[in-house]
Each structure stands twice: as C-alpha cells, then as structure tokens.
Design a protein that fits this description.
Helices cover 49% and strands 12% of the residues. It is an alpha+beta fold. The chain has a 3-stranded mixed beta sheet, with no helix packed on it. Strands 6-8-7 form a 3-stranded antiparallel beta sheet. The chain has a two-stranded antiparallel ribbon with strand order 1-2. α2 runs antiparallel to α4, α6 packs across α7 and α8 crosses α9. It is elongated, with a radius of gyration of 22 Å. It starts with a helix and ends with a helix.
Length: 261
Amino acid sequence: MLLPLFPRARYFADFLTPFEGVDGLEPALEAILATPDGQVNHEMVRAARASRVPSWTLRVADKSLRRDLVNLLRAYHRTVITPHEENIQETFQAERARHARTLLAEGTAGLLADLSPTVRWRHPVLEVPDYPAESDVQLGGRGLLLIPSYFCWKSPIALADPGLPPVLVYPVHRVLTAATAQDEAALHVLLGRTRAVILRAAATGVTTSEAARRAGVSTGTATHHTRALRDSGLITTHRRANNVLHTLTTLGAALLGAERR
C-alpha cells in the first residue's frame, strides 16, 4: 500500500509529508487524517499524472482508507524505523552540532553554502542544480525550514505547492561512520575503553549522564573521564540549562579522523 503512495517519481502528494511532522510522528499522522478531502483529491490526481499508480490511490480522500494508511504508517515506523532510531538520532545530533558551529563561525551564508554538495548559495539565491523539476520558490519573508533527512540520498527536495510553508529537505551528512573492531582496539589502547567511548560520543554532543550511559559507568566516573579528556584538549564542555554538554575540539576530531583513516 505504501509504495504506490510514495513513488520514486518527480512528484508525490504533499499532504503525505505534512509540516506538522516537525513535532513528531503522531502530529504528522493526525495532520494526514485532517487534510481536506479536496486537497487530497487534487494532489492524488496530480500524482497519478506524474507516474503510474494503482486506481485505488485516487480514493485516499476517503477517511476510512486514510485511517488505514495512517495505521500502516504507524506500524511501519514501529517495525522498520524504531529499531534504528538511536543511530538515526545520533546522526541528526551531529548534523545540528556541525551546522551550529558553521553558523556561529560563518553566519547564514556559510550555513547555506555548507548544506550539501548538491546545493549552491549565490546570494540571494539558493540553487539546487539537480532538482527533479525546475521551479522558483519565492520566500517573501516567510523563512526557509531546513530539514536533514536520513533517507534522502541524492538531491534535496521541496514541497511542490508554493503556497505551503517553504521547506528544503536535504541529505544528512554521514561523515561519522561506525568504527571497525580494529579501529576501536587502537583507540582503546591509547585512551582506555571508557574514554574512547566517551570521546566518540562527544562527536555528536553528549551530556555527562549520556556519556555515563554510553560507557556503562556511573555519572561520577564519567565526570572523571570527561575532565581528563578536557584537560588533554580533546573535548570542550559548556553548561546548558541544568546539564553540561561535551563536544569535540579540533584535536579530538582529528584524533577520530586519524582513527577512521
């Protein structure tokens, strides 16, 4: 049922990727159910013109069929996405940390220029050269929501309807790949297992309690190891609300990079 509704084509219905999804899965599913029937009909007819889809897809405006779709999306998420959600979230945390540093150091222009290899920033235009359809999106002061996607592999994509809030979905960077057993052994010899685990965790930004959980030690022990890593210049620590956040320094990132190589 899902494949025909999300075809690998130039277009699929915008109501299936609602703006409310920024608040999580359930708000997105509720928005799909609440989409006006007329909008669903219009978008599904457009989808049928863009690619060959079964005739039943034109009946998705029917509330009972849409309720079945929502239940299936929820089940699919539980079965396919949830088991890998921790790794996916780690990737997103690394993306946010990377962009935050770029924004602080180089401003908005630097952030836009560093979004993706397939995106070019030429003030005042953000160009996506390999986009599947040619179009201009005028922001008109509305702002642009940037959404890194774990499942968008090639060119960034946007909502087709220019009347919807401007959104650009782009492929998340996958620089921080999992270390091999040989890599782990080398770093463990240098730092010890606990500090090596905490150093890798700091690549995406980690609190002391999160570092303790990742390393399987107490919070007090994790504090001792983060202090040693900080004193060695491998991580830096910033207070955020009631927590402290540990992130890599340039030296720490270089050490992990050398490990990967």
